Amino acid sequence: MSYLTMTIVSSLPYVSPWYFLLHEIPFCLCGSKIALMTGCLSYMSDTIPEHKRGIRLGFLEAAANLGMLVGTLSSSYVFTSFGYNTIFLTCVACQFFSWMFTWFFIKESLDVDENQRQWTTLFRLTPIKQTMAIVFKRRENNDRALVLCIFSVFVTFIGAKYSDSSIIFLYLRKEFSWTLEMYTLFVAFSLAIWILMCLVTIRVFVNILRMKETTAIIMALTFNIMGYSVQGFANKNWQIYGAAGLLSVGSCIPPLSQLLLSKVVPKDEIGKLYAALVSFNSISLLLGSTFNAYVYNQTILRFPQGFNFVTAVICGFALIVAIVSSILYSKRGTPRFHILTNEEDTRNE
Fold this sequence. Notes:
Elements: H1 2-11, H2 24-29, H3 32-47, H4 50-82, H5 84-105, H6 126-135, H7 143-161, H8 168-176, H9 180-208, H10 213-233, H11 237-247, H12 253-264, H13 270-299, H14 306-331, H15 343-348
Membrane topology: Multi-pass membrane protein
GO cellular component, one term: membrane
Keywords: Membrane, Transmembrane, Transmembrane helix
């Protein structure tokens, strides 16, 4: 409905741009990307065995970025050849195909209460309160601290990753004289290597090297700090591409963080926890891009590459939290009591 609204509005001549905001109404009522990603993550946690869940979550991350890659490469050509309406109609067709596939081929993993299907439940605040309560719920074995640490790492990483999305082209155009075509090719390269490394790093770190998820996240964050540092010191085009290669190692962080949460939190709580995770990600994206835009505007004359080092510092904070989560996770299986010997055996000795 959202893209169909965009198609209709774009077809009207001399219409006010404010009418394009109408497409946000069905988008918001349906939960937008938050509901979509929460449903995908929850369904995978319900239906996939734990030992296969990491690589499957990696496939989900890769598939999302593959869609972005295809859209980035094809949209400009479609727009040049056919105009706005064709782009929006293509989006309508893709969404309709996804809806049909979900309706006919994906079975519900849980029994849903029919009372929860009422439209009035969309406007209740109780689910929001319950979701926040799940995040901060007191748990055994310091699991609450572990959950909050994983949350912090994930949200901070996502905020850092997309914080330069609104300024990176401006920076590359100013410092390296890049054209829009050069930047489009760079974005395509970044997405392609992100997809590849998402699958490779999970396979190598977790399946081959048998690393713990927290250790793999620490490794990936270290590569991200190196990547942003290289991007900040870069003065040649190939160095920018090299930085993108280092940053692509971080592609394993989202699926591994989601896998960790599914191991720590009971199955009946994971859906609400994923909903909170995606919601906090949306806030992190907004804050990250706004903050880095401010930093870039303040340093554009004297130190325009400064936002790269700010992002590296943010990843450094995430690295520290990841180390703390690794310590908590390693102690999680340690019992808090001493195993008592049998009293009769002690007497016999």
